[in-house]
Amino acid sequence: MKSLLALLLPTFIFAKHFHKEKHYQQKFCSLVHGQMEYRLKDRTRVDCLTSNYAFEVDFGHKAFEAVGQALYYAMMTGREPGIVLIQETKRDNAYIGRIKKLAKKYGISIFVINKRLEVRKVR
């Protein structure tokens, strides 16, 4: 029983969110007049594609995964890479700070959307 709890604990920690990822994605994409779920030739999907950017939208704790996806989507579309990080808790600030350093090095634009659906550019 303890081993089952240890396996499921990470899921419980991140399972409760204020909104689903798709809700944040819809809000951001409508603000930037982008196309949601743009399908690439390899059947992967860009969360939000604009005339200039290919955005990956993800929760703060998945920031490092978002970097790879944003760079891949940018390469596949010929657009600039962008990340929209969802900030629901103070804990997410640590991830945002770390990703800003990577974003600067690789030319990735970063936006943050909070639980009140307020958007700000951080890089």
List keywords for this structure.
123 residues, alpha/beta, Rossmann fold, six-stranded mixed sheet, 45% helix, 28% strand, globular
Could you please describe the fold and organization of this structure?
- A 6-stranded mixed beta sheet has the order 1-2-3-4-5-6, sandwiched between helices.
- Helix content is 45%, strand content 28%.
- It is built from 4 helices and 6 strands, in the order ααβββαβαββ.
- With 123 residues, it is an alpha/beta fold.
- It has one domain: Rossmann fold (3-Layer(aba) Sandwich).
- The chain is globular and about 35 Å long.
- The protein has helices at residues 2-15, 21-31, 63-77, 92-106, and strands at 35-39, 45-49, 53-59, 80-87, 109-114, 119-121.
- The model has no long low-confidence stretch (mean pLDDT 88).
Task: Note the topology.
Blueprint: H1 2-15, H2 21-31, E1 35-39, E2 45-49, E3 53-59, H3 63-77, E4 80-87, H4 92-106, E5 109-114, E6 119-121
Parallel strand pairs: 3-4, 4-5
Antiparallel strand pairs: 1-2, 2-3, 5-6
Number of strands: 6
Per CATH, which architecture?
3-Layer(aba) Sandwich
Radius of gyration: 15 Å
CATH-defined fold name: Rossmann fold
Q: How many domains?
A: 1
Largest sheet descriptor: 6 strands, mixed
Helical percentage: 40-55%
Could you give a quick summary of the protein structure above?
This protein has 123 residues and is of the alpha/beta class. 45% of the residues lie in helices and 28% in strands.
